Amino acid sequence: MARRGTGAGVLRERVTIQRKVVTRDGYGAEGVAWQDVATVWARVEVVKGREGPESRQMDVMASHRVAMRYRTDVDETMRLLWRGRVLNIVALIPDERRRYLVVLAEEHVM
User: Fold this and answer.
1) Counting beta carbons within 10 angstroms of the beta carbon of residue 65, is it exposed (0 to 12), middle (13 to 18) or buried (19 or more)?
2) Average pLDDT in the 13-33 region?
3) In DSSP terms, which residues pair with 45 in a beta bridge?
4) Distances (CA, A) of 107 to 63, 90, 92, 95, 99
5) What pLDDT is attached to residue 62?
6) Considering only CA atoms, which of 69, 90, 72, 83 is closest in space to residue 15?
7) Which of 17, 32, 64, 103 is least surrounded by Cβ atoms within 10 Å, i.e. has the fewest?
8) How far apart are CA 43 and CA 65, in angstroms?
9) Phi, then psi, of 17 in degrees rounded to 5
10) Shortest CA distance to 102 belongs to which of 70, 73, 79, 75?
11) What is the mean predicted confidence (pLDDT) over 46-60?
């Protein structure tokens, strides 16, 4: 990861991590809201393709690769906000030293 330039100097984008919160109204109907967990510095790359075994990553479709400092409070049920865009988390890939976390995400188009 470090050889691709994941050091703190290249984490130049602000990304907000959000978690889904299910709510119920007075009639019992469910609603979904998104709650901010944290806003972090990250590197965001538009990839629009598959991550394959040649890069030691899972074979998943992703439109963005987001690198941030390692966190334990992020999972695949969450999403990221970046420049007003919604990125649904597809996969999480920590580096071997657990210094950085790479998030593969698909952009949600409204």
Assistant:
1) buried
2) 93
3) 65
4) 6, 10, 15, 23, 25
5) 74
6) 83
7) 32
8) 8
9) -90, 130
10) 70
11) 58
The confidence score (pLDDT) of residue 72 equals 96
Q: Which residues pair with residue 38 across a beta bridge?
A: 17
Dihedral sign for Cα atoms in the order 107, 62, 18, 22: positive
DSSP symbols for 4-48: GS-SGGG--EEEEEEEEEEEE-TTS-EEEEEEEEEEEEEEEEEEE
Name the token pair of 92: 């999480």
Q: Is the pLDDT assigned to residue 1 strictly greater than 50? A: no
Q: Which residues pair with 20 in a beta bridge?
A: 34
pLDDT above 70 (res 41): yes
Contacts of 14 (CB under 8 A, 6+ apart): 39, 40, 41, 42, 82
* The amino acid at 2: A
Rg (CA), the chain: 15
Mean pLDDT computed over 37-43: 98
